[in-house]
Amino acid sequence: MAGWFTPLLRRRAALAVAASLLAPWAVGQFVKGFYQPGLADDAVRSQLLIDFIVIGTSLFALTMVATWLIGCWVTAVMKGPRRDADHFPGAPGEPPP
Hints:
Blueprint: H1 7-32, H2 43-79
């Protein structure tokens, strides 16, 4: 697992997971501020609907992060280990035979 899961990919994955959880929650909290009792009809129901939308958005975003990481793994498996071939005769910088 350590071969394809580089430190850069770890940082990007951690950032993507954090953004998937925090961004919908922050937007949901902001939007719920507009639905207060007395300002909106049935404010509690509207806030609950926003909570459901936030949960769905977070799950969808986490699924997309998981799909991205599976794609990274598949790409690493398909590329395989690095192999160096024989040098091509007459390559630049190589003396003639």
